[in-house]
Specification:
The protein has 11 helices and 9 strands. The strands form 3 sheets. The chain has a 5-stranded parallel β-sheet with strand order 6-7-8-5-9, sandwiched between helices. The chain has a two-stranded antiparallel sheet with strand order 1-2. It has a two-stranded antiparallel ribbon with strand order 3-4. It has helices spanning about 1-15, 60-70, 70-80, 100-110, 125-140, 150-160, 170-175, 195-210, 220-225, 230-240, 250-255; strands at about 20, 25-30, 30-35, 40, 115-120, 145-150, 180-185, 215, 240-245.
């Protein structure tokens, strides 16, 4: 027992000073690794040259730096189509009637814990702002998936084939459990009982586990209820903010 205590005292004497991340200024304590027999800083990618110095960067800050430097790659990985890779709040052309929706989307980024249902006519900027939200969430280091509802259903339906690499359950769980989900073009899919049940399950799971969801649609919740299912629209109404996008089709105005 005395030898064990002496060994512990010897280890404690070699304990290095805490280190500070040069980016976020967070201070990290060393952890003893009994397998390698040395002190480590698990939160630090690069251990400072001098104990107590701020010459290293923590893993979280290093990851954020990598995201900033490679944001397009992260947007692609999240599922953003090439057409929208350049979308951001800075590139959004706001008309007077879109100032309020734009502000609500910007405010969402400061505390992205709830849900958003963005609806309105074609070409009013819903997808643009949804991608802008995705961009900012990624820059905050959050994990997310972006997909259109028709594509989501296509992926799940494709899993029914015998030669499919993934199962239906895999895709449903992927979209049900990801930390943030952005569903584009909700309500444009063909309304079948299977589609309704699949979407209802994903939304139900996300709502019950408080996983934030951003949805864009051309349909109001009342219109969605008529087309699909009152249960889905009722659940969406209770999940968070419902934001109306007014105005003309920007794509048509741009070509006039």
């Amino acid at each position: 027992m005395e030898k064990i205590k002496e060994r512990e005292r010897e280890i404690d004497r070699t304990r290095p000073e805490p280190v500070m991340c040069k980016a976020c200024r967070s201070v990290f304590q060393p952890t003893w690794d009994p397998f390698e027999g040395k002190w480590k800083f698990p939160e630090m990618s690069v251990i400072p040259i001098k104990p107590g110095s701020a010459s290293g960067m923590c893993n979280s800050c290093r990851r954020l730096m990598h995201i900033r430097e490679n944001i397009t790659r992260y947007l692609e990985k999240a599922g953003i189509p090439p057409k929208y890779l350049g979308c951001s709040f800075e590139t959004f052309k706001t008309a007077n009637d879109l100032n309020k929706p734009c502000m609500i989307c910007k405010e969402y980024i400061t505390e992205p814990l709830g849900n958003l249902y963005l609806y309105g006519g074609f070409g009013t900027g819903k997808t643009h702002l949804a991608v802008a939200i995705a961009r900012e969430l990624l820059l905050q280091g959050r994990d997310l998936l972006f997909t259109s509802v028709p594509r989501l259903l296509f992926e799940i339906r494709k899993a029914f084939r015998q030669d499919a690499g993934d199962t239906e359950v895999f895709h449903v769980e992927k979209y049900s459990t990801c930390p943030y989900l952005i569903l584009d073009d909700f309500g444009t899919e063909k309304s079948t009982e299977w589609a309704r049940q699949t979407l209802d399950f994903i939304i139900y799971e996300r709502d019950n586990h408080l996983r934030p969801t951003v949805i864009t649609s051309n349909l109001s919740l009342d219109e969605l209820s008529e087309k699909m299912d009152g249960r889905i629209s009722s659940r969406l109404a209770g999940m968070g903010k419902v934001v109306l996008f007014k105005g003309d089709d920007y794509r048509l105005r741009r070509n006039r």
